[in-house]
Amino acid sequence: TKANRICRAAEGRPVMEFGSRRAQGYDSATYGARAAYIGGVAGTATVSAGEMFDIPVVGTMAHSFVMSYKTELEAFKVWNEVFPHTSFLVDTYDTVKAVKKLVREDLKPENVRIDSGDFYTICQEVRNIFDEAGWYDVGIYISGDLTPELLTDLENKRVPFDKCMVGTKLANL
Length: 173
Known about the structure:
By secondary structure, the chain is an alpha/beta fold. The protein is about 45% helix and about 10% strand. The protein has a six-stranded parallel beta sheet. Helix 2 (about 25-40) crosses helix 3 (about 45-55) and helix 6 (about 95-105) packs parallel to helix 7. The radius of gyration is 16 Å and the shape is globular.
């Protein structure tokens, strides 16, 4: 299955299913998440699938949340108040600047999510910033058109990431 191929390519890193917004309707999203879970993903963002099939439900900050505030930093502070110990989406504007803001403001998340850009360089830059701050335990999640081939290449090049979220490539292939 597609999910199984993606999970194998992730080399043991957890893969989360995030395909509902691209699926062709409610049933497609729900049963697509179930199929992905059977294929090996660790959780889904599709709440209906979580409720119907007892699949762990997961999620992260959205670009629209960040963009609904005057500044990215304001969005991060509000998110941290409401959802402490979760993930920050750091690539809405400038990934490196966003990560530096988190460190400067001591808004240490459990993880950050990078949804676009050159994963090969950005993930390493983010890891370096966190390591320099002593934040070795902050995870890096990636999402955004991930395929088994891309994940295999990222693994072969030892790109530092801890988890991945796959949506479009699960729901629409």
